[in-house]
C-alpha cells in the first residue's frame, strides 16, 4: 500500500503508546475504558445514550442459574473486558431453543452457555483473567445504512478525540465475509470520513484501497447525516471521561445515536482509511486551549476538513464609513459611529457614558463587540463614536457603502432581535428539561412497588451535564432594551428558561414543587373542584371499537402523513418509548412496539399528535423567528389544551381517556398532601382506575423526587386540564348561526396555528406580519 510507504507521518503503535497513551491516558483511564459495564452506567447517568443492559453474569454459579429463555428474541452477548471485537455474539432471533446469529447461523442454548463459559474464564479479556458476561440490547441500524450493507447488521463510526477535538473518523461497514461484524480484520470495510462535512472519502478492505462498495455504490457519494451531532457526542464523552487520547465507537440506530464503546488504546487503521497520517493532526492540536466540545468541533472543521465548508453566515458583513450602532449599558443608546483608518483607538462622546467606564459593549450589524474607549467631545459632529478599523477585522470596510437612512435603526433592531432569537433557541435547546426528570430505574422500581405497594419508590436521575451558572450568564448578556414588537415575547422566554434551570437545581427538594408551580401553574382548591365537576358532568362511554394490528397502525399513520405532505417525518418503532406514541422536533414519531390501539384511539392520536403538535411545529418552522418553532413562554398549556380539544371534537368514545386529564389534575392537587404510595391507592380506590394507570399518573406527579414520600407535586401535567378549559373558552362562540359560528372558530384556529404560541400572545401578534398557517386541522 503506497500510502504507508511514502508517508513519514503515519502514527505507529510504539509512537502511539509512548507519545499519547502513556502521556495522556492514566491507568484509571484505561481501566475505565476496559470495563464496559462501568462505562455504560457512567455514560447513561450523563445523558449519553447506550444499548439497554439486559443482564450480567459474573461467575459460573450465576451462569448455571441463568435462564436464556427469559431474554428477548434478539440480543448481544459480549465480554466486559474484551478487546478488538472478539467474543461478541449477535443473536437476531430465536425460535424455541434455537438461536439465530446475525449471519443466519443457528446455534443451541448449550452453545450460548459454552460461549458464556469462555467469557467468564477470561478467554476474550484483555488481561486474560476471569471476566463478566454482558447481555444487552441488539441495536438495529438507522435505515440510512440499508443501501450500503450486504447483511442486516450494524455499522459503526469510530472517532478519535484528542484535547476535546475530533481529529479523525472512520465508518466501519460489516460484510458477509466479516459475519455481520464491523471488524476490518475479518473482512469488513473501513471508510474515511471528512471531519468537516461527514462526507465519505476513501475506502479500505483487506489493506487495499477501494472506491466502490460491494453494491457498486461510489464511496464518495455517501454522506453521513446529522454529522455535527455525532461529533458533539464523541467530544462530550471525552469531556466527561477525561481520557486524553480516546477512540469512541458510535452507532446510528433506529432510535438515535448510541455509544457502543470507548477505547483508550485505539487501533491505527483509521489513518489508512482516511489517507491521512494521524500524528500530524495530533501535533496540530495538542497545545491548543479548548474550552468545550462545541469549540473543539469548530476547530476540527477548520483544521481537518478536506472540503471547503459552504456557510452563508460565514461571509463578512460589509460596513461603510458611517454606521448605526447600539451602545449597551444600563440603558441602551442608539448612535452613529464613524469608522476611522487614522485612529489607533476608539472614542466616544463624553455625554453618552456615565462615570469612568472605559470598556463598553456595542452592537454593529447585529454583532456584539466589547471595546475599550477614550472619552472625547463630538459637539457639532454628525457622529458621536469613532471606531478604529483595527478592531473591525470581522467586517469588510467599503467607503462607498452608505448605511444611514430612515430605516437604519429599524434594520439594526431587527438584526438584534434575530440574534436574541438564535441565542434563546440555542440555550433553551440545551436544557431538555424532561430528560432530567425521567427516572433511570423506573422499571425496577415499578416491579418492586407492584410486589409491595406499601413502600413508595426511590428514583434515580441522571446528573445534569451543563453548567447552570454559565447558562444564567449567557441569558443575562442578552440585550433587554430593543425597539421591537417581539421583545416582550423574548423577555418572557428568558424568565421561563431561568425558572427551568431553577427547577432542575431543586430536584428532590421541597422547593421543587414551588418552582414547578411557577412554570406550569398551581393545583389549588378551585382547580380541584373544577376537575371534580368536569368528571361528574362528563360521563364517558367505553371504547368498543375494534383493535388494529400493528402493521395497519403504521400504514394509517404513514398514509395520513403523506396526505398532509409531511414526508420528512419518520415512524420509529421502539420498545423503550415511555408513551404509546410521541413526537419530537427532529421529524420522528416514536411508536411503542407493545402499544395497543383501537380504531377510535388511533383517530384520537392523529388529532392529538399530528393535527396539533406536528402541525403547529411545522407552521412555526416557516416563520423567520425560531421562537415560533421552539415555543413562546407558557405555550405548553395552549398546546396540550388544543390537543385535547382536537381529540374531543371527534366525538368518539375513548373510555377513561375522556377524563384522564381531570384525574391527573386532582392527583397533582393531592400530591402536595400525600406520598406516592398514598396517592396511588387513593386514585385507584376513588376513581376505580387500573393499577397501571394509577402508577403512570403517580410517576408523572412525583417525578423529580428521589424520595417520593416527599409531599409535593410536579405540576407539568396540570396544563392538560387548565389548557383545555382555556381553549374551550377561546373557541366558545355565542352566535347561533352555524355557518358564522364555524367560520369564527376556523379564523381563531388559524391564528393559533402560526406556531407554538399561547392564547395570550395573540394580542401582541395581531398586527405583526407572520407567515399564515398552512397546516390546519379540518373543521
Set out the fold topology.
Layout: H1 2-6, H2 13-24, H3 27-34, H4 36-44, E1 53-57, H5 60-65, E2 75-79, E3 89-95, E4 98-101, E5 106-108, H6 109-120, E6 133-136, E7 156-162, E8 165-173, E9 189-193, E10 200-205, E11 208-210, H7 227-241, E12 245-253, E13 256-263, H8 270-274, H9 278-285, H10 293-304, E14 317-319, E15 322-327, E16 333-340, E17 346-349, E18 359-364, E19 367-376, E20 385-388, E21 395-397, H11 408-431, H12 433-436, H13 442-451, H14 468-476, H15 487-505, H16 511-520, H17 525-537, E22 547-548, H18 550-563, E23 570-574, E24 581-583, E25 588-592, E26 597-598, H19 599-621, H20 627-630, H21 635-648, H22 660-671, H23 676-687, H24 691-702, H25 718-730, H26 738-752, H27 762-765
Parallel strand pairs: 14-21, 16-20, 17-19, 23-25
Antiparallel strand pairs: 1-6, 2-3, 2-6, 3-4, 4-5, 7-8, 7-12, 8-9, 9-10, 10-11, 12-13, 15-16, 15-18, 17-20, 18-19, 22-26, 24-25
Helix pairs in contact: 7-10, 11-15, 14-15, 15-16, 17-22, 19-21, 21-25, 22-23, 22-24, 23-24
What does this 3D model show about the protein?
This protein is 39% helix and 17% strand. The strands form six sheets. Strands 11-10-9-8-7-12-13 form a seven-stranded antiparallel sheet. It starts with a helix and ends in a 14-residue tail after the last helix. The radius of gyration is 30 Å and the shape is globular. The protein has 27 helices and 26 strands. The chain has 779 residues and is of the alpha+beta class. Helix 7 crosses helix 10 and helix 19 runs antiparallel to helix 21. Among the domains are: 1-30 and 139-308, D-amino Acid Aminotransferase, Chain A, domain 1 (2-Layer Sandwich); 316-404, Cathepsin D, subunit A, domain 1 (Beta Barrel).
Amino acid at each position: 500500500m503506497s500510502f504507508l510507504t511514502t508517508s513519514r507521518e503515519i502514527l505507529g503503535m510504539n509512537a502511539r503508546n509512548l507519545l499519547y497513551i502513556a502521556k495522556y491516558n492514566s491507568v484509571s483511564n484505561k481501566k475505565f475504558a476496559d470495563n464496559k459495564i462501568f462505562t455504560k452506567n457512567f455514560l447513561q447517568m450523563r445523558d449519553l445514550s447506550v444499548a439497554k443492559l439486559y443482564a450480567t453474569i459474573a461467575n459460573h454459579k450465576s451462569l448455571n442459574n441463568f435462564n436464556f429463555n427469559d431474554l428477548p428474541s434478539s440480543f448481544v452477548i459480549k465480554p466486559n473486558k474484551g478487546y478488538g471485537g472478539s467474543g461478541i455474539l449477535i443473536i437476531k432471533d430465536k425460535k424455541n431453543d434455537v438461536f439465530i446469529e446475525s449471519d443466519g447461523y443457528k446455534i443451541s442454548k448449550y452453545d450460548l452457555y459454552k460461549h458464556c463459559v469462555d467469557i467468564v474464564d477470561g478467554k476474550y479479556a484483555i488481561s486474560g483473567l476471569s471476566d463478566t458476561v454482558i447481555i444487552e440490547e441488539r441495536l438495529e441500524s438507522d435505515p440510512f445504512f440499508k443501501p450500503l450493507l450486504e447483511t442486516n447488521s450494524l455499522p459503526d463510526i469510530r472517532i478519535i478525540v484528542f484535547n476535546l477535538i475530533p481529529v479523525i473518523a472512520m465508518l466501519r461497514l460489516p460484510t458477509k465475509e466479516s459475519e455481520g461484524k464491523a471488524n476490518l480484520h475479518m473482512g469488513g470495510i473501513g471508510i474515511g470520513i471528512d471531519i468537516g462535512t461527514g462526507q465519505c472519502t476513501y475506502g479500505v478492505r483487506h489493506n487495499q484501497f477501494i472506491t466502490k462498495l460491494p453494491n457498486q455504490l461510489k464511496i464518495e457519494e455517501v454522506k453521513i447525516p446529522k454529522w455535527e451531532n455525532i461529533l458533539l457526542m464523541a467530544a462530550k464523552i471525552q469531556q466527561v471521561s477525561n481520557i486524553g487520547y480516546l477512540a469512541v465507537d458510535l452507532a446510528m440506530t433506529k432510535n438515535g445515536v448510541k455509544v457502543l464503546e470507548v477505547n483508550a488504546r485505539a487501533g491505527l487503521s483509521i489513518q489508512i482509511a482516511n489517507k491521512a497520517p494521524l500524528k500530524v493532526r495530533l501535533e496540530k492540536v495538542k497545545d491548543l486551549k479548548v474550552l468545550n466540545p462545541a469549540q473543539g468541533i469548530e476547530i476540527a472543521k477548520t483544521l481537518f476538513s478536506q472540503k471547503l465548508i459552504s456557510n452563508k453566515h460565514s461571509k463578512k458583513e460589509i460596513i461603510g464609513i458611517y454606521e448605526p450602532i447600539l451602545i449597551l449599558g444600563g440603558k441602551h443608546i442608539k448612535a452613529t459611529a464613524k469608522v476611522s483608518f487614522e485612529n489607533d483607538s476608539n472614542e466616544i462622546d463624553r455625554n453618552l457614558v456615565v462615570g469612568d467606564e472605559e470598556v463598553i459593549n456595542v452592537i454593529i450589524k447585529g454583532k456584539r463587540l466589547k471595546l475599550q474607549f477614550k472619552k472625547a467631545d463630538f459637539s457639532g459632529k454628525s457622529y458621536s463614536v469613532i471606531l478604529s478599523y483595527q478592531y473591525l477585522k470581522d467586517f469588510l470596510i467599503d467607503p462607498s457603502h452608505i448605511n444611514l437612512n430612515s430605516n437604519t435603526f429599524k434594520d439594526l433592531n431587527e438584526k438584534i432581535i434575530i440574534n436574541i432569537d438564535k441565542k434563546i433557541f440555542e440555550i433553551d435547546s440545551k436544557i431538555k428539561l424532561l430528560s432530567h426528570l425521567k427516572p433511570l430505574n423506573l422499571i425496577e422500581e415499578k416491579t418492586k412497588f407492584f410486589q409491595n405497594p406499601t413502600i413508595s419508590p426511590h428514583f434515580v436521575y441522571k446528573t445534569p451535564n451543563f453548567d447552570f451558572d454559565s447558562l444564567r450568564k449567557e441569558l443575562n448578556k442578552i440585550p433587554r432594551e430593543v425597539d421591537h414588537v417581539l421583545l416582550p415575547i423574548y423577555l418572557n422566554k428568558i424568565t421561563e428558561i431561568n425558572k427551568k434551570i431553577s427547577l432542575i437545581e431543586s430536584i428532590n427538594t421541597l422547593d421543587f414543587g414551588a418552582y414547578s408551580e411557577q412554570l406550569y401553574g398551581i393545583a389549588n382548591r378551585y382547580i380541584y373542584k373544577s376537575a371534580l365537576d368536569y368528571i361528574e358532568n362528563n360521563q364517558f362511554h367505553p371504547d368498543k371499537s375494534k383493535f388494529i394490528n400493528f402493521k395497519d397502525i403504521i400504514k394509517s399513520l404513514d398514509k395520513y402523513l403523506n396526505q398532509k405532505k409531511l414526508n420528512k417525518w419518520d415512524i420509529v418503532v421502539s420498545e423503550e418509548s415511555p408513551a404509546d406514541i410521541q413526537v419530537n422536533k427532529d421529524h420522528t414519531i416514536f411508536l411503542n412496539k407493545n402499544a395497543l390501539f383501537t380504531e377510535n384511539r388511533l383517530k384520537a392520536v392523529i388529532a392529538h399528535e399530528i393535527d396539533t403538535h406536528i402541525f403547529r411545529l411545522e407552521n412555526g418552522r416557516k416563520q423567520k423567528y425560531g421562537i415560533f418553532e421552539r415555543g413562546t413562554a407558557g405555550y405548553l398549556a395552549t398546546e396540550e389544551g388544543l390537543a385535547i380539544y382536537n381529540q374531543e371534537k371527534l366525538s368518539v368514545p375513548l373510555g377513561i381517556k375522556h377524563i384522564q386529564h381531570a384525574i391527573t389534575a386532582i392527583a397533582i392537587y393531592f400530591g402536595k398532601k400525600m406520598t406516592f404510595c398514598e396517592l396511588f391507592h387513593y386514585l385507584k380506590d376513588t376513581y376505580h382506575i387500573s393499577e397501571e394507570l394509577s402508577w403512570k399518573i403517580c410517576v408523572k406527579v412525583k417525578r423529580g423526587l428521589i424520595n417520593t414520600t416527599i409531599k409535593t407535586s410536579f405540576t407539568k401535567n396540570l396544563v392538560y386540564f387548565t389548557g383545555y378549559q382555556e381553549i374551550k373558552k377561546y373557541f366558545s362562540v355565542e352566535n347561533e348561526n352555524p355557518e358564522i359560528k364555524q367560520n369564527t372558530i376556523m379564523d381563531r384556529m388559524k391564528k393559533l396555528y402560526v406556531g407554538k404560541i399561547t392564547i395570550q400572545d395573540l394580542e401582541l401578534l395581531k398586527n405583526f406580519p407572520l407567515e399564515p398557517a398552512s397546516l390546519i386541522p379540518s373543521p
